[in-house]
Amino acid sequence: MILFGIGVFIHVMYLKVRYETSVPGFAFLSIIISVFAGAQLLSLGIIGEYLARIHLRMTDRPTYVVDSDDDANEGT
Predict the structure, then answer these.
(1) Is the dihedral of CA 45, 51, 54, 58 positive or negative?
(2) What is the pLDDT along the chain (76 residues), one digit of tens a residue?
(3) How many other CB atoms are there within 10 angstroms of residue 8's CB atom?
(4) Looking at 1-76, which runs of residues are DSSP E strands?
(5) Residues 6+ apart with CB under 8 A from 5
(6) Are 5 and 35 contacting, i.e. CB atoms less than 8 angstroms apart?
């Protein structure tokens, strides 16, 4: 998402240079909002991964549980 903010920066700067008619402050505001929104989403993703790993370690359970082993009982 930070790359999206950089893309918005390039696009807004292109429009500002090309047409030279823009709302005062729009370029700055749109770039800042895009970059910080991307940084927030990246941070939330990192926190989510961290919490998921903590949860998996705290439960300390195997990925799957075998209910019964029918092949082992056939020999007896």
Answers:
(1) negative
(2) 667 777 877 888 888 788 876 678 877 888 888 888 888 999 999 999 999 998 888 887 766 777 777 666 565 5
(3) 19
(4) none
(5) 31, 34, 35, 36, 37, 38
(6) yes
